[in-house]
Amino acid sequence: MLIEHVPVPDPGEYGRPRNRFRMTAWCLPPGSAARRAREVLRDQLAKLPLDPDVLDELEIVVSELVTNATRYAPGPYELRLLHDNGLPVRAEIVDAGAGTTLINHLLHRPPPVPERIDDLELGGRGLRIVTELTHGRCGTQWTRLCGTGQLGTGVWFDLPTQRHRP
Length: 166
Hints:
Elements: E1 2-5, E2 21-28, H1 33-45, H2 52-72, E3 77-84, E4 87-95, H3 100-107, H4 126-133, E5 138-144, E6 151-158
Antiparallel strand pairs: 1-2, 2-3, 3-4, 4-6, 5-6
């Protein structure tokens, strides 16, 4: 289900500038949330001049974030895209959980230096992958779900558009 947030009516007729930002949100079904998020992201970014490898990496990022959300936080789940003058500049995965502080810490912690191969953890690499593939341009924020108004956690990452090149 698509939930589109339209900016307030254009005040341009009163001599003020138009609202340049627009946010679109998609509800993600719990059983297939990661697949649906990848499909939406690819569809929305397909017309941009992005290297196919970059698009593949962005799919990995969104898949990791949605998988974490569905594994560790209650639903509902949303994918949001923020547009600046029509150009998608940020993506966000939102859930009804309260993990903002913990997730932000995990996104920005230094990588471990294992003394033995046994010290490598089986899990816990997803957020490191997100940080690496987004060049650190990611974070968390408290937000409200568009579909329900519930308070939740948003994990965002900047998209590598012309305004945000690594």
